[in-house]
Amino acid sequence: MALKNISYRRNVASDGKLEMSLQEFKKWIKRFDLDKDGKISKEELQEAVRANGGGWFSRLKGSHGIKVADSNGDGFIDENEFNNLVDFAQRNLGVRIISY
């Protein structure tokens, strides 16, 4: 499942993965930080997955993403753990982070 509805540069590779810069990915994911606390909660990540075609698996993928990316176990992904979220997105959400 590739991320959809991104108003940034769209570049889909031949393998179907959406290619975007790290800045574009950060900008996209921060749209789901509804309480604007600078952290992504499980619910916010689930909404991000759901909004981009996650369907029945959005809750599962969102929960799994938090478990994978939340290295300090506080239930949120903060700026220090953001690279973990990038790795998760590249493995599970059909995204490839590239340099432009």
TrEMBL record:
PROSITE patterns: EF_HAND_1, EF_HAND_2. Signal peptide: none annotated. This is EF-hand domain-containing protein. InterPro entries: EF-hand-dom_pair, EF_Hand_1_Ca_BS, EF_hand_dom. The keyword Acyltransferase does not apply. Coiled coil: none annotated. The keyword Calcium applies. It holds the Pfam family EF-hand_5. Keywords: Calcium. Residues 20-55, 66-92 form the EF-hand domain.
